[in-house]
């Protein structure tokens, strides 16, 4: 059949882990229910009863890693500069004297390194405490996870790995650890923050170390950074915090992990320099994100505001807004030793001195990639889904004219949200559902996106009140797109619960097959195509398929036998919802695939590609031939390009300005042909 697809990791892989292994390492897809208030403590409740100054000046008595030597930041820098590894790299540098290269390395380290001081931690505690009490109603922390972290920090070097949705993420973990007498982490941050007057230095002295955004092939910078990170991990002088996704997610859904820092923090274990390393995934969930409107505009091509102290003070108006609650879920500490047991052979590092650089084997690289994906997946599983995320899922399935003009009936929306709440629980999602009036309050909280009036809910579209000129049709599309993309970002917070059963529901609908083998083949095809959109642990295609089957059977959507998956009448509503949930991704990929197939240019730059796709999508939206605004998002467009590179349909050539070339027209055309056939069928039979 045309959709027969051979997947490289269908049934067996070096990094497959069975149910028992998962339960021992980390609970993935575990039974979850409504949040138990006893498990989460509101840390702002006590803060509101004490003075900010009293909180900042409280006794701080952390229990550090037992094996950590007593050392200062100057000792850390000295250890890095005098390391055999860095001396070797400096000796290899040609074209300059050794002393000149050493001075350059010292300059890089001064620019990069933290200067953690308790006095500045107290200053940050005073300031952040004030800000958080203004921004949030409550900040809930799971105490069980925090207690496990406190114990883990004393036993081995600890790596804190939160998800990254907001600038607030940078402050919240240190704030919590200071509150509970846990050692303050050193935090990897982007170099633009260091350039902020006064604020940059305060951040540095509060534990931030700064990394350049574009390192490229600068071998000396890579060497200084990697040795700096490895020395922190090796000595255990402080917990190290970094974002495995690499940058702040502008869509509020998980981003495919970046492996550079991950490789650096794991290398001391691979080389036998430490007995074990503990990874702590942290899931940060927001009722409302502070930067919601800015993120949507960035996705539409509006330049990101430069980080500056002036900009920070101008943004102080956000203190007048209500951002609801935040939940910080500290996951179960994961032992790198246990994770890697039986998966890698560390003896390869015995062949050369551990102080010398060594390119990791494919086995090691695959292991690092597997661990990174496992961390992000665990972050997803630990996040709490708000009622607003469920409402956003449903609002986006309504026609755009209904959203922008007459609005959705409130009664129907609330009934459907309660139905979806039950489905999330059937799918073992974690919900934050505080009270019976939660839907009215959550719509009121998100007044910048929708408004509830006369029994209907409509999308808010704010124009420029100072402008007297009418909007052009293209400007009108962009204004609507900004509001839609804000709604999309909150829908994305719930996607991880629905993705696997959603892909299976799509496979059932498209193939019209009941045979498990055919459905599995097509499930793997879609899983590979969307590997840049959603998080899939490498080598777990079979487990993901089995999980999807199990969840659809549990909610009564399908009946399972050994060879077949049969759709039940009672499951049509569930399958329809899941298919519509993934439809915007299918529509977006279809449009971009067709653009690349039909466009005459075989070589183009990303700067040419993004506006060209956006212009085409705008025209199709105005003509009524396209109904999804998500294709206007630069994130979606870049994900498609990344997918095509991974599928070897497009090759990235670093000539002048990152030129992209279609390397294999036959291969590319094959995917386009499959795509057009499948997407046409989807379009023709959309009303399920």
Automatic annotation (TrEMBL):
Record-level GO cellular component terms: mitochondrial membrane; peroxisomal membrane
Q: What name does this protein carry?
A: Phospholipid/glycerol acyltransferase domain-containing protein
Q: Which residues form the Phospholipid/glycerol acyltransferase domain?
A: 158-287
Location in the cell reads: Membrane
Q: Which UniProt keywords apply?
A: Acyltransferase, Membrane, Transferase
- Pathway assignment: Phospholipid metabolism
Q: Which GO terms describe its biological process?
A: ether lipid biosynthetic process; fatty acid metabolic process; phospholipid biosynthetic process; triglyceride biosynthetic process
What is any Pfam family matched here? Acyltransferase
- Primary gene name: GNPAT
The record's principal subcellular location, in a coarse class, is membrane
* UniProt GO MF annotations: glycerol-3-phosphate O-acyltransferase activity; glycerone-phosphate O-acyltransferase activity
Stored CDD domains: LPLAT_DHAPAT-like
Family of the protein in this entry: Belongs to the GPAT/DAPAT family.
